[in-house]
Amino acid sequence: MAVMMQAFYWDAPQKENKRGEWWNYLNSKIPELSAAGIDTMWLPPISKAASPDSPGYDPYDYFDLGDFDQKGAIKTLYGNSAELKQLLASMREKHIGAIADMVINHNSGADEEEVNPLDGQKRWTKFNPKSGRFPRDWNCFHPSRYEEAIIEGEEFAGFPHLCHRNPSVYKHMFDYARMIIEELGFDGFRFDFVKGFGAWMIGILAKYKYERNGEEVRPFVVGEYWSGPEDIDNWLERVRAVTEGQIAAFDFPLRYKLKDMCDTPNYDLRNLTDDGSVVSKRPFNAVTFVENHDMGGNEIVNDKILAYSFILVNEGYPCIFWYDYYNLELARPLTPNGIDALIDAHHRYAGGEACILHADPDLYIMQRGGTEGQPGLIYVLNNLGDQWSGTSIKTKWHNQKFKPLAWSGHDEAHPDERTTNENGEAEFPAPPRGYCIYVPIFE
């Protein structure tokens, strides 16, 4: 499985003094991200929003990528279309896929208020974008002549919500998706706030047969359904019923487990063994993550690298957060103690089925069984804060030598090599409040 990076955080261009220059800044980072093993980058919303400093989750003109003087600026917060295209070209050159952030539920920044004749209420629903594409009025939003009912959970920040059953809205959403895949060269979609619109809309945009350079493109699709495991599972079933593609969801339930693991004193590691996550039930439908741009005020505070170790050795599609990697300096390049070493372990060894070999309140040991290209590993997670801890386990490998490849904790002394006996047994320890990844040595 590949490794994704969310290549922004909330207000990143302002906080890093790069208003209108984020695409250029990302472009400068492509060589080192490629070398680190990042396969895919999730980019922030590309369209002109309601204000110059908006991160883009209140779209105004879907087809203005930073080239029209409207809403207080020409560029978006991130740049213009030429800079975006250059970034995407650099990513393609390094074989890094691009995921577009699709905000197709709500709009903001309307030019006029108007009365909706269906209920007599006045709303900001008159849009006259300078791109000349997708002008809107009240009939493009709920309530509309095409669909009066508002989906439960649809309301968001008081913004008007698009009625996708209006043929004009439906057509322009298709045009927008085609521009993203076929013209700009993105490889997939991240759909924002999917609980706010019908799964059928995801389905039709996902299974359309996009073409680029004469070849069909099947976009990767992941939805943000911020809820518990049962709700996410039900949403995945609804989407599966209307598409032929493999649709994924962000694993919010696992993320909250990982926060508890890092921030709750005396957390019981056996909680990591149950099925209360997306990845435990649907490993091929789960995008696992530790942090994202919406977690302000709910960030993981302590030993966040433990959470990254868990998602990068486990099943699922792991996503790394830019702020953690760069601003919190968890990459730790050229050491065995950071995200870069975990990415290396993920790519070279973390193949095959995940099998929990031991779990108690303070110690968790998991085996990846390996494939032809990824020989597998042993992952040890130690929740004790004052001592190294491990136990003898029975692995699938008999008389096999293992070396520590990546580790971190409150003591970062170099772990020793381990060798299993004829029964596949050996003791594998990890540092206090830390982890260690052991990989087989084939001589």
From TrEMBL:
It holds the Pfam family Alpha-amylase. Keywords: Calcium, Carbohydrate metabolism, Glycosidase, Hydrolase, Metal-binding. The keyword Metal-binding applies. Its cofactor is Ca(2+). InterPro entries: A-amylase_thermo, Alpha-amylase_C_pro, GH, GH13_cat_dom, Glyco_hydro_b. The keyword Protease does not apply. SUPFAM superfamilies: (Trans)glycosidases. Ca(2+) 1 binds at residue 105. Residues 409-420 have a biased composition (Basic and acidic residues). Ca(2+) 3 binds at residue 362. One of its GO terms (biological process) is carbohydrate metabolic process. Residues 2-346 form the Glycosyl hydrolase family 13 catalytic domain. One of its GO terms (molecular function) is calcium ion binding. It comes from the Bacteria. The active site is at 192 (nucleophile), 224 (proton donor). Residues 408-427 are annotated as: Disordered. Belongs to the glycosyl hydrolase 13 family. PANTHER family: ALPHA-AMYLASE. This is Alpha amylase catalytic region. It comes from Terriglobus saanensis (strain ATCC BAA-1853 / DSM 23119 / SP1PR4).
